[in-house]
Design a protein that fits this description.
Layout: H1 9-15, H2 32-35, H3 53-68, H4 72-83, H5 89-98, H6 101-107, H7 114-122, E1 126-128, E2 131-132, E3 145-148, H8 156-163, E4 175-178, E5 183-186, H9 201-208
Antiparallel strand pairs: 1-2, 1-3, 3-5, 4-5
Helix pairs in contact: 3-9, 4-5, 5-9, 6-7
Length: about 210
């Protein structure tokens, strides 16, 4: 399975904003983009070329991919699913991405980053409706209860993440969390206003519609 193995801080610097890929480090002065605001590479400081319309659309798609931590083919599949739905394509695309189990685990603050959330899911530390699910791309539906397995609740990374609930950002209004039981529930499918993603999805739709 394809996987990005280079420094994730380079991705934030390339996109020119924090994608919060490094967990708690992103909230400290050690964050790479705080220290080096220019793009990575030997010529990162000298990149002043104005992007074409295609370049702007491509950068927005890459930003979305990296924000949610998925590869190109999988992202394209999500877009095709969204395009075949009856709703607004861009909004549906973000709803599908937000509904991924690894993203829900991260949004519920059971993990410090989406990468950490994927690891928890793959290592069978997460349940959905009291059943173990080890597929990060599993689509969580409204009223599904996502929880950390009882035997996994004393893991240091999980405890550290739960202690930070509310510190990173406000809990989305379409999620409910119970810190004591380390469980949460998706109350509804999120609207675009309830999705905190630094993405202009209309540019992604334009890119794939060519």
């Amino acid at each position: 399975m394809a996987r990005y193995r280079d420094s994730v801080c380079r991705l934030c610097r390339r996109e020119g904003l924090k994608l919060f890929l490094k967990g708690e480090r992103c909230y400290t002065e050690k964050c790479a983009i705080e220290r080096r605001t220019y793009a990575p590479g030997d010529h990162g400081r000298d990149r002043r070329t104005k992007l074409t319309n295609y370049g702007v659309q491509l950068r927005e798609k890459q930003k979305a991919r990296r924000f949610y931590g998925i590869m190109e083919r999988q992202f394209r599949n999500y877009f095709e699913t969204a395009a075949g739905s009856s709703g607004v394509t861009g909004e549906t695309l973000l709803q599908l991405l937000e509904g991924r189990l690894d993203n829900i685990v991260y949004r519920l603050s059971f993990a410090a980053s989406r990468a950490a959330a994927r690891q928890l899911v793959r290592h069978r530390h997460i349940t959905v409706n009291a059943r173990i699910v080890d597929v990060p791309s599993y689509q969580v539906k409204p009223n599904d209860v996502v929880a950390v397995r009882e035997k996994s609740r004393n893991m240091v990374p999980v405890l550290a993440a739960v202690e930070g609930i509310g510190k990173r950002s406000e809990m989305p209004d379409w999620l409910e969390v119970n810190e004591k039981t380390m469980s949460g529930r998706m109350t509804r499918i999120p609207s675009r206003d309830g999705i905190a993603a630094p993405v202009q999805e209309n540019l992604i739709v334009e890119l794939y519609s060519k």
